[in-house]
Amino acid sequence: MESFDNTIDHCERAANIAYGLLSKVTSLTPIMPRGAMYMMIGINTEQLEGISSDINFTEKLMAEESVFCLPAECFEFPNYFRIVLSVPLPMMEEACTRIEEFCRRHQVAPTAIAATAPNGSSH
Q1: What is the pLDDT of residues 65-98, one digit of tens each?
Q2: Could you tell me whether strands 70-71 and 80-84 are parallel, antiparallel, or unpaired per DSSP bridges?
Q3: CA proximity to 63, closest of 27, 98, 28
Q4: 3-state SS string over the chain?
Q5: Contact 97/21 with Cβ under 8 angstroms?
Q6: 117: which residues sit within 8 A by CB, 6+ positions away?
Q7: Phi/psi of residue 114, each to 5°?
């Protein structure tokens, strides 16, 4: 029973780390798990340049950051990806940092809002 409790404790700590780091990324929406050994994270593809789906996101993340995540499309849950929580905690922190850097690099630049008159002409 001690081994089971240690595993649950480890997954909870990993979930807290991942949630804390990934919830700061504006294009991602992590969902805190309840008893699972994985976390689902939503992807706002409209906020990421060159990212069209969860499959595209995870392929590019692997190629650019060497972080493997499972696209949730395979569970019929599009625009989400899944991370496992059973990895060592320093590895979880490193992976989340790389995911954050990846999203920052692909973040769509805010559109400059030009002041226009009601008829569409510029001031």
Answers
A1: 999 999 999 999 999 999 999 999 999 999 999 9
A2: antiparallel
A3: 98
A4: CHHHHHHHHHHHHHHHHHHHHHCCCCCEEEECCCCCCEEEEEECHHHECCCCCHHHHHHHHHHHHCCCCEEHHHHCCCCEEEEECCCCHHHHHHHHHHHHHHHHHHECCCCCCCCECCCCCEC
A5: yes
A6: 123
A7: -85, 140
